[in-house]
Amino acid sequence: MTYTTLLTEEQGAVGLIRLNRPAVLNALNDTLMDELGHALTAFEQQAEIRVIVLTGSDKAFAAGADIAAMRDLSFMQAYQTDFITRNWETLKRIRKPVLAAVAGFALGGGCELAMMCDVIYAADNAKFGQPEVKLGVLPGAGGTQRLPRAVGKAKAMDLCFTGRMLTAQEAEQAGLVARLFPAAELLPETLKIAQQMAAYPLQTLMMIKESIQRAYELPLQEGLLYERRLFQACFATHDQKEGMSAFLEKRPAQFKHE
Ligand code: CO8
């Protein structure tokens, strides 16, 4: 499938999606979000792909929703069409790990899109922010909800009230970013991590994702029980026997992802 706003490629068991609207720093519009939903779903359905990486350019992951496409919307148009967020839930439904590799600007909807991913790896030139207040609106795709969960209330309020940008270093210290890399190494390093993850059993990666996501939704006791049941379910898989046998026999494991 050829997209107008994305580039996609497969690298072994890793599916790579690159946001590609360079003239507007990958600003998000309905076409891009529809295509992103399609590309993610295609990798989700492709059995040989086990991990997905979402990235932008060296200058921008995404500088937010497309302001030109948004300015003249009426309330009815925004409400009835669910401008750019109509496909937002697609990303939430992806069960394979989705890693964001963020270089440059991740602002507004761009920061919110990165936060929809399971892990954010960032270049040392990355800048994160929710500058919507400067445009007379508030974050509309999770900035007031996911950002406080990621960086705490104080930083989230500060960022949303002032519209200032977090540096990559601050973002890592605050817990928004898992690891930082020099800009030139971001994508190769993220792909290396993705390949490492993709060698592990797919069903285990999916269970980890499902269980960690529950940590944000369930009371602790319910989350712990959910985790324990998934742990026990692993004993029905080939890969649990293989992983533990390989350890005891001091040899590399041969996982079959089943
Ligand atoms: N939308 C449209 N065009 C954009 C956007 C954007 N978000 N960001 C950059 N561009 C365009 C610029 O207009 C410019 O175009 P041109 O060359 O034709 O003038 C081009 O990209 C390059 O940008 P700059 O010249 O501004 O580049 P700089 O390096 O000087 O500055 C910045 C980079 C700081 C990133 C600057 O472009 C900027 O501030 N951009 C806007 C950031 C912003 O406000 N983002 C939030 C948008 S609102 C949002 O995301 C809400 C999401 C909620 C969705 C949920 C709806 C229900």
From TrEMBL:
CDD domains referenced in this protein's UniProt entry, alphabetically: crotonase-like
Cross-referenced InterPro entries: ClpP/crotonase-like_dom_sf (IPR029045), Enoyl-CoA_hyd/isom_CS (IPR018376), Enoyl-CoA_hydra/iso (IPR001753), Enoyl-CoA_hydra_C (IPR014748)
Gene Ontology molecular-function annotations: 3-hydroxyacyl-CoA dehydratase activity
Keywords recorded for this protein, A-Z: Fatty acid metabolism, Lipid metabolism, Lyase
The enzyme's E.C. designation: 4.2.1.17
Pfam families linked: ECH_1
Superkingdom, taxonomy of origin: Bacteria
EC top class named in words: lyase
Catalytic reaction equation(s): a (3S)-3-hydroxyacyl-CoA = a (2E)-enoyl-CoA + H2O; a 4-saturated-(3S)-3-hydroxyacyl-CoA = a (3E)-enoyl-CoA + H2O
Gene Ontology biological process terms in this record: fatty acid beta-oxidation
Role this protein plays: Could possibly oxidize fatty acids using specific components.
Similarity section: Belongs to the enoyl-CoA hydratase/isomerase family.
Stated name of the protein: enoyl-CoA hydratase
Organism: Parvibium lacunae
